[in-house]
Amino acid sequence: MADVLEAVKVSRSFDVSKPWLQRMLSRSGRRSLRAVDEVSFSIPKGTTLSLVGESGCGKSTVARLAVGLYPPSSGDIRFEGQSLSSARAQPALRRRMNMIFQDPYASLNPRWRVQDIVAEPLRAFGMLRGSAVGDRVGQLLSQVGLSPADGAKYPHEFSGGQRQRISIARALSSEPDFLVCDEPTSALDVSVQAQILNLMRELQTRLGLTYLFISHNLSVIRHMSDRLGVMYLGRIVEHGPAEAIFTEPRHPYTRLLLDAIPDLDAAGGVGRVRAGVGGEVPSPIAPPPGCTFHPRCPLANDRCRVERPDYTQAGPVEVACHAVEEGRG
Ligand code: SF4
CA spacing 20 to 30 A to 250: which of 103, 147, 174, 267? Predict the structure, then answer.
C-alpha cells in the first residue's frame, strides 16, 4: 500500500523568549521549546496510525504539523510524496486533508446553521454551487447518521455526540483522503464514544480514509489503530504494529503506560488500576540530558543519564532505549 502521509525527521520548536512567557516559565532564560523532536513515521493508505502519550508529549503539535497548520522547524512532511512546505502545492493539497477536533462544542460556530457549517469547505474550495451544495450537505449528514432536515438547525439543538457527527460531516465535505483526529471522543460521554469511534471506522472502510489518530486513552487507541507511536517529551520512543506493542511492549515508558489501563480481570478487584508512570513529566523547556525518560525509568543506568538512545529494531517494533539494545529490557 502506498503511503499517504510521511514525516521525515520532523522537529518543531516554539519561541518562548517573550517576557510574559518567561514570567510563566520562572525566567528559565531559554529562548525556545522543542515540542517535537525528529519524529518520523509513514501512514499507508486506508490505515490508522495513532500517537499516544501524556499531556505535553507533543502529539497535538504533530497533528497540526501533519495538516500544515504549523510548518516544521526542520525535517519534512510529505503528502503522497509531495512536500507540504512547497508553497505551490498547498492549495491543492489542503482540500485533501482535514482535521476533527476534540471539542465539538467549541469547534462549531454557534451562530451558523448546520447546513452552512457543513457547506463551508465546499464553498471555500469552490467545489459546488447553487442547489448542488444543499444536496451534498444532505448526503453528508445522512452519511454520519443525521437527517438532511437537521441542516436547518443550530449546533445548540444537538447533543455532544450529534455535534461530533456534524464535525465529521464538515471534515468529509471536501472529500479528503486524510483526516487528523485529535482526541475526537475525549469530550464525550463514555456511552457515546463507542458510537463515534464505530462511525469513524465504518467511514474509513467505506471511503478508504487514512487517519492520524491522537489520544491519551489507550483503550480507544487499541480499538482504532493499525500502527502505534508512543511519544515522550516530543520524541517517538516506540513505534510499530499496534497489536505487537499492546501484546509485548518493549520501552519502559510504554510498559508503565499500559500498566495504567484498568485491569478488569485483576484479582485485586474489577477496574483495579496498576501503578502507571510515577513522577512528573519534566519541563520541555529544560529536558533532562541523555534519555529524557531517565528520571522516571526503573531501568536507567549511567549511560542513560548522558547518552540519547538511538532506535533499536526489536521484532516488528522500533524502540529508543539503551536497555532494549543491551538486552536487559
Ligand atoms: Fe530507561 Fe535508559 Fe531505556 Fe531511557 S534508555 S527508557 S532511561 S533504560
Answer: 267
pLDDT tens figures, 295-327:
999 999 999 999 999 999 999 999 999 999 999
- What are the tens digits of pLDDT across the range 273-299? 455 677 788 888 889 999 999 999 999
Of 240, 193, 199, nearest in space to 215 by CA:
193
Give how many domains the chain has, as a whole number.
1
Q: Could you tell me the distance, in angstroms and rounded to a whole number, from the CA of residue 238 to the centre of ligand 1?
A: 12
Confirm whether 66 is domain-assigned: yes
The pLDDT of residue 196 is 95
**Edge-to-edge strands, sheet with 227-232:** 97-100, 178-182, 210-215, 48-52, 227-232, 235-241, 317-320, 311-314
Global pTM value? 0.90
CATH code of the domain in which 16 resides: 3.40.50.300
Pocket test for ligand 1, best of 235, 294, 303 (most atoms within 8 A of CB): 294
Domain that holds residue 308: 3-96+176-320
